[in-house]
Amino acid sequence: MSVLAVEALVAGYGAAEEILKGASLHVEPGEIVSIIGPNGAGKSTFLKAVAGLLQPRAGTIRFAGTDVTRRDPQGRARAGISFVPQERNVFGSLTVAENLEISGYLDPAGAQGRAARLYERYPVLAEKRHALARTLSGGQRQILAMAMGLMTEPKLMLLDEPTAGLSPKAADDLFDAVVNLNRGGLPILMVEQHAVEALAVSTRGYVFVAGRESAEGAGPALASDPEIRRLFLGG
Ligand SMILES: Nc1ncnc2c1ncn2[C@@H]1O[C@H](COP(=O)(O)OP(=O)(O)OP(=O)(O)O)[C@@H](O)[C@H]1O
Ligand SMILES: [Mg+2]
C-alpha cells in the first residue's frame, strides 16, 4: 500500500485560477521522493494541499490507504503527515526549546521525551536550546524546522526546499540529515531547487510544470535524462 497516493488534484487560492491542474503523485514505504520544476509550477501549493492547508476542488489524497482529502490540517497531522514549509518555518522570537515544545501540541504529555530524543539526534539543537531561533545559522534553523516536524512522530515528512538559502556545505549537510532520517524508515516527499543534488539522494523524482507532473522516474535516471537536464538542470 502506498504511503501517499494523490490522484488528479485540482486546487488553488480562492477565486483565482486553479494552480494545480490535475496533479498525481505517489510515495511508497521507505522512499525519498523529490519534486523539482520551475518557479511557480505549483510545487509548494502541492505540498500545502497534501498537508491540508488548501482545500482541493477535485481529486483525492489517500494516506496509508485512508482518504484524507476532506480532513483539516490537524486531522492530517494526527494521521501522521508532517509539513515543514518553505518559509517562516520556525518562530524566531522563541528559543529552540520553546519551538520544539509548541510543535508537540498533539501530545503535550509526551513532548519532553520526544524533545530529549531529538536533542540526542541533533546535538546542535541541544547546544542551542536556550538560544532564540532567529540567532541560528541557516543550516541550524532548517534542522530545527525538521526537528519541529518530527515532534508529532510523523509517518510521512513533507519538506519544502529544506536547502533554500544555504551555503553549498550547509546544503550538503542538510541533505545528509534528510538521508539519515529516511534511513530510520521515514518516507520523505521534498521539493527542491537543488535538483541534481536532490535527485541524487532520491528514490524517485517528479518534474512539475504548470500545475502538474510532466515527468517521473528513478532519481538518478531523471538527473541524467538529457531532455530533463536541458530543460531544468542547466544543460
Ligand atoms: N497564497 C497565495 N495566494 C495566491 N496565489 C498564490 C499563493 N501562493 C502561491 N500563489 C501562486 O501560485 C502559483 C504557484 O506557486 P507555488 O508557490 O506553488 O510555486 P512553486 O512551484 O513552489 O514555486 P517556487 O519554486 O518559486 O517556490 C504562483 O503563480 C503563485 O504566485
Ligand atoms: Mg515553492
Structure write-up:
A 6-stranded mixed beta sheet has the order 6-7-8-3-9-10, sandwiched between helices. It is 37% helix and 23% strand. The longest helix has 16 residues. The mean pLDDT is 94. Strand 9 and strand 10 form a beta hairpin. With 235 residues, it is of the alpha/beta class. The protein has 10 helices and 10 strands. Helix 3 packs parallel to helix 6 and helix 6 packs parallel to helix 7. It has a domain of 164 residues: 3-Layer(aba) Sandwich (Rossmann fold), CATH 3.40.50.300. The chain is globular, with a radius of gyration of 17 Å. It binds adenosine-5'-triphosphate and magnesium ion. The site of magnesium ion has 5 residues, from helix 1.
Write a brief caption for the model:
The chain is α/β, with parallel strands linked by helices and 235 residues long.
Strand content bin: 15-25%
Number of helices: 10
CATH class category label of the domain at 4-91 and 157-232:
Alpha Beta
How does the helix and strand content classify structurally? alpha/beta
Number of strands: 10
Spell out the key features of this protein.
binds adenosine-5'-triphosphate; six-stranded mixed beta sheet; binds magnesium ion; 37% helix; alpha/beta; four-stranded antiparallel beta sheet; 235 residues
